[in-house]
Amino acid sequence: IMCASAKYNTRGPALIPRMKTKHRIYYITLFSIVLLGLIATGMFQFWPHSIESSSDWTVEKRSVHDVPVVKLPADSPIPERGDLSCRMHTCFDVYRCGFNPKSKIKVYIYSLKKYVDEYGTSVSNTISREYNELLTAISDSEFYTDDVNRACLFVPSIDVLNQNALRIKETAQALAQLSRWDRGTNHLLFNMLPGGPPDYNTALDVPRDRALLAGGGFSTWTYRQGYDVSIPVYSPLSGEVDLPERGPGPRRYFILSAQMALHPEYRSELEAIQAENGESVLILDKCTNLSDGIPAVRKRCHKNQVFDYPQVLQESTFCVVLRGARLGQAALSDVLQAGCVPVIVADSYILPFSEVLDWKRASVVIPEEKMPEMYSILQSVPQRQIEEMQRQARWFWEAYFQSMKAIALATLQIINDRIYPYAAISYEDWNDPPAVKWSSVSNPLFLPLIPPQSQGFTAIVLTYDRVESLFRVITEVSKVPSLSKLLVVWNNQNKNPPEDSLWPKIRVPLKVVRTAENKLSNRFFPYDEIETEAVLAIDDDIIMLTSDELQFGYEVWREFPDRLVGYPGRLHLWDHEMNKWKYESEWTNEVSMVLTGAAFYHKYFNYLYTYKMPGDIKNWVDAHMNCEDIAMNFLVANVTGKSVIKVTPRKKFKCPECTAIDGLSLDQTHMVERSECINKFASVFGTMPLKVVEHRADPVLYKDDFPEKLKSFPNIGSL
Amino acid sequence: MQTRKKYIFLTFLASWLLLFFFGGDRLRRFAFFSGRKAEAQRNWPHWTDRSLLNSFADPEELQSDGDPSLPSPRERRAARLSVYKNSRCRMETCFNFSRCEKHGFKVFTYPRERDQPLSESYSKILTSIERSRYYTPNPEEACLFILSIDTLDRDHLSSQYVRNVDEKIRGFPLWNGGRNHLIFNLYSGTWPNYTEDLGFDIGQAILAKASFYTESFRPGFDVSIPLFPKDHPQRGGERGWLYQDSIPPKKKYLLVFKGKRYLTGIGSSTRNALHHIHNGKDIVSLTTCKHGKDWEKHKDTRCDKDNVDYEKFDYQELLHNSTFCIVPRGRRLGSFRFLEALQAACIPVLLSDGWELPFAEAIDWGKAAVVGNERLLLQIPSAVRCIHPERVLAFQQQTQFLWDAYFSSVDKIVHTTLEIIKDRLLPHRSRSRFLWNTLPGGLLARPDFSTHPGDFPFYYLQHGSSPSKKFTAFIRAVSPSGSLSQPILRLIQAVSGSQYCAQILVLWSCEKPPPPSGKWPQTTVPLTIIQGRRKLSDRFFPYTAIQTDAVLSLDEDTSLSTSEVDFAFVVWRSFPERIVGFPTRSHFWDAEQRRWGYTSRWTNELSIVLTAAAFYHRYYHSLFTEYLPAGLRELVDGLAACEDILMNVLVAAVTKLPPIKVTQRKQHKETVPQQVGCKEGDAGTPPVGELSPSPLRSPPAKVKGTTGAAGGRRFSQRHDCLNQLADWFGYMPLVSSQLRLDPVLFKDQVSVLRKKYPRLEKL
């Protein structure tokens, strides 16, 4: 089965027999040449169109006026009116879309034709600039297909963006004669200005049968939820005027209204608000006495004062967007562009892309009846929230309003999400501005769970050849009541592990895993043998931890299953002189890391370490044979946003017969290396995820004046 | 070796050339044939004159979209009211908002009539409303009305079908065409078509219905509710079945279904196809023909074999051990299966086209379920196989969150329905989708408190912010004498010495007026006196004076040092959603008396932090006062020492996590029972028995007889309190912890000079 997503590798680390590097490079090059050849041939064989088309159409220059003319007989069929009960499962032919590994719909665009009636009068303008941009964007996107037989969605090139610019009956006839029309099934029409005088319907009046409508200005009565797509009314000013983003914060005016041709009743209500609140409210209107040559759309006036539009929108915190004859207003786009929080007063209006966008984060919706209370309603919005709304408004414009391309792609993505819901874009991806995506953390283990104690933990001992010490560790760890399994990762390829009979006899299963390469990352591999959520990583020379200490560590982990729970803590510090991070192993009042020489953590982090470690950190660690613990600390802190938990007073790992770790720790070069690791990782992560805390976890009655024998964890060890 | 290499290289080269040759051949042939299709459109052309094209609308037309000939907005609104009624109802046309303005969102339930039998489920719904903080017995105050006629089962073949509903409703003077009414329904229509018809005219009433079909659903007006069984608990509710996040998040089966196969009638096309995806390995899809009386009449060739296979698997076993569960439509669109799968953390794969999913106005189902298409059943196995394990893990956790937040009890289902309607009344004061879909969920994130995620204790990480750097000390004073005692003076000094203290508030809960400002000690931070109303629940009132995120709650006789306060606050900033404090207590299940026990002995565990000295987020004041039903607060005001337990229970119910104990310099004595009216005499010395050690990890021995009279009474009151609270909540929310957070160098044998909090170690 072809899946777009990466497969979970549950096998052990690569067990390929080692080859000499020289040979490897040779074979890899050879293989890739053959692969390239295969791909190239495949391209020639199966996608002849794409190769041809590039030569066909980019070379040939054509004018819109040269397109074929189609004459529509007066009696050619007209589609049924739109069916209000249409939903994806009733009117949409989902079989056309099929299952595909990329979960992308295929969109076909009909070629451009000029439609004329019997008398040769054209039915509409051939195509508007905006519709051309929209179709170009679709054609350039990965949704596009030129194969009408493989298409799932059809977009007619008949431009219906503005209903007033077309002849309704004839346009409908033009639609009906499209080659795959079939009652409009799987056809998508884009319309921004629906309706016309006198009643201004809120959806396109062109009969369109089952076609989906991406419309600007839907009301809740014409919008077929889950079928139609509500889109913005594009404002051509977006392309003309460059309004640089303005930082959030207080602005000169609190409320601004800059729409022209408002209904007098609305205008008088706005003026009443202004009269009550004075200077902070600004109501603008069309300028009456502008000198020639200045476009009226770019100026607004209040009494004799002239303001530049849309620049003036940046001067206000809130900008009113009232309904006009239609519900959808191009002003909404201008307001968002200016980073002004829209105050939407248009009852029953379906906001653009409301299926996926959370407008509560970017706008204030006020019922028309409540307009007089606008000022007090807006005053009740907390300042911090206003700032976020300003940022959010600007983000919506940048992502979904600023060009016809943005509008087109968002529309197609929404339809795509309906057809492949299991591959849909998440709420966060639709709504969070890049700054929020960057600063926020979404913990993959977000559910507050305290795992049952009965499951216990799996101890993983990474060992090379210190068999004697290893056996002592195994014996010690096996005394911990909650140990459920012991896994020895035998990292020595040149030597076989001792025979079964020589291993200590312990009460829990003991498994030995042999690795293919002596790599530090083998200790963090999500071995299938790990059947518990809790993992205790322990070095083969850590014998000083008492059974109580380990058991307590496990209990603490249960209360904080999404954190690293370890014994000796370490700290990172900013070295002001050198202007870089520094590793600190002094006994400080703060910790930001724990050593993984003995630490509890969730098995999930093994998976993350092995498959999701950013950049080249994993290989770097393996190459340097150092800092795997720092890498793990970075990884966990980065993904959860939480600090480590240091348990018990333990400050260092000391073992009588070995000098490796502590001997090294004191070593200056070791410290320099560790500091380098921190700097390296911080640059790869692009941030310093480690969190500094001043606490450690002790048993409730630790050092309390209380009989030791009544304490759960009396023997908690020392420094 | 060399020759071998050369040989391999040559072979590769040859095969590559061969492939290219064939490919080239194919290419030539394509080029030949494609000449015929020259007319076909390839890419959208880059028109030479594209820059000359006209805009779709004149800029002036776009900017001034008005038409003076149009009716005035007011007229239009009035006209709308008469047009958009009944099946086209929306809040703005069928709901009278003005009813909700004066008294807020109040819900009235019609008095129950004696001769009117109520189904178990409907009486639970009514009880939920009557126990809620929105209930009003006065129809004048009501914003929303609930009928006492059981409308849950509208299948007229059912025994619970109530007849002549139309007639009865017309007799109600409050009915008013159904305006501002909310009607609950679980089953509509009957064999064979199971239409959406309720058998009476609901008029302009809001319909909260299970198995809602999108076409008849009035968006923004109706509410889709889940189908729940009649033994669904009133409150509390069972927890979900996910006890830990397994990695990889795979269970024994990938996808399961076990249920009826309809041979004919509505819904049969889906149910009849389900057996196709059964592979006997990781996909188990079992159907039975045995249902109804005359199934054998319609029996087909599969039935006998299917019926045998069907018995081989246990439904519960499948539910527990599958990653995904198919939730197909039945005769109606919704099924019990949906909630069962949700609780079991078995990710629902919905095959129920046109089903308006429960609470879809608030809940983002894309995060917890796979919305399949009935017509694409055969794609389901490959689709779910392709879902990345990380998403599966997130899905599983989300099912548990949603189950626990909105579905596990009738109370939650009813409250979610009400809150969704309430959110519509003031759109600018409603929850964003973020609040609904993030822990702890919409019911616990009150938009009346704030609509800004940064103001709540729960969202700092997702929001990328952190709690404020200062705290407000909130001291409850009950000094009987009306003057300032030594302890309170010392306490004010100690607290105001903290570098993190923003202000001190004193809640003066005495009959006598507080001493004049000159009598209060001079502090570097502002000190404000608030006159209390002498109720115990007062101390958790959301006073506007509390402006910092953190509140340090204190009793006047609490003894704390500045470094204790400093350290505790630093710890709280790491755990802003929990209570972080000093003296602790614990609860235990007393198997002998079959009730919950409370102990203040020194134990190895803790589950309660006394609010006599504790940090917590100010939002909990708001939850305590405005979220908890009035009845519960009255209960607390009636019992002498219950308010702090309630606060702990509340926070535990919200977070599902234990509180945090931090180092305290010396053991606090059990605080003197606080008297509301500052009466003297009742204040006893701390009962000796309460401080004596208790055996390890076993429930402490009964304290009867070892304590003084006052202590004993107080103690039994706290027992009662705990048990009554467990009853109110429907379960015991308290969670135990075995740890205490100390400074990193606490009591370590290192120089005192190195330690940041050396004073914590002095006795």
TrEMBL record, chain A:
It comes from the Eukaryota. It catalyses: 3-O-{[(1->4)-beta-D-GlcA-(1->4)-alpha-D-GlcNAc](n)-(1->4)-beta-D-GlcA-(1->3)-beta-D-Gal-(1->3)-beta-D-Gal-(1->4)-beta-D-Xyl}-L-seryl-[protein] + UDP-N-acetyl-alpha-D-glucosamine = 3-O-{alpha-D-GlcNAc-[(1->4)-beta-D-GlcA-(1->4)-alpha-D-GlcNAc](n)-(1->4)-beta-D-GlcA-(1->3)-beta-D-Gal-(1->3)-beta-D-Gal-(1->4)-beta-D-Xyl}-L-seryl-[protein] + UDP + H(+). Keywords: Disulfide bond, Endoplasmic reticulum, Glycoprotein, Glycosyltransferase, Golgi apparatus, Manganese, Membrane, Metal-binding, Signal-anchor, Transferase, Transmembrane, Transmembrane helix. GO terms for molecular function: glucuronosyl-N-acetylglucosaminyl-proteoglycan 4-alpha-N-acetylglucosaminyltransferase activity; glucuronosyltransferase activity; metal ion binding. One of its GO terms (cellular component) is Golgi apparatus. The keyword Glycosyltransferase applies. Residues 102-381 form the Exostosin GT47 domain. Its EC number is 2.4.1.224. The chain crosses the membrane at residues 25-47. Its main location: endoplasmic reticulum. It is a single-pass type II membrane protein. InterPro entries: Exostosin, Exostosin_GT47, GT64_dom, Nucleotide-diphossugar_trans. It is found in: Endoplasmic reticulum membrane; Golgi apparatus, cis-Golgi network membrane. Part of the heparan sulfate polymerase, a dimeric complex composed of EXT1 and EXT2. Could also form homooligomeric complexes. Interacts with NDST1. Interacts with GALNT5. Belongs to the glycosyltransferase 47 family. This is Exostosin-2.
TrEMBL record, chain B:
It is a single-pass type II membrane protein. Residues 668-712 are annotated as: Disordered. One of its GO terms (biological process) is heparan sulfate proteoglycan biosynthetic process. InterPro entries: Exostosin, Exostosin_GT47, GT64_dom, Nucleotide-diphossugar_trans. Pathway: Protein modification; protein glycosylation. Keywords: Disulfide bond, Endoplasmic reticulum, Glycoprotein, Glycosyltransferase, Membrane, Signal-anchor, Transferase, Transmembrane, Transmembrane helix. Residues 472-746 form the Glycosyl transferase domain. One of its GO terms (molecular function) is glycosyltransferase activity. The keyword Glycosyltransferase applies. Its main location: endoplasmic reticulum. It is found in: Endoplasmic reticulum membrane. Pfam families: Exostosin_GT47 (PF03016), Glyco_transf_64 (PF09258). Residues 103-384 form the Exostosin GT47 domain. One of its GO terms (cellular component) is endoplasmic reticulum membrane. Belongs to the glycosyltransferase 47 family. This is EXT1C protein.
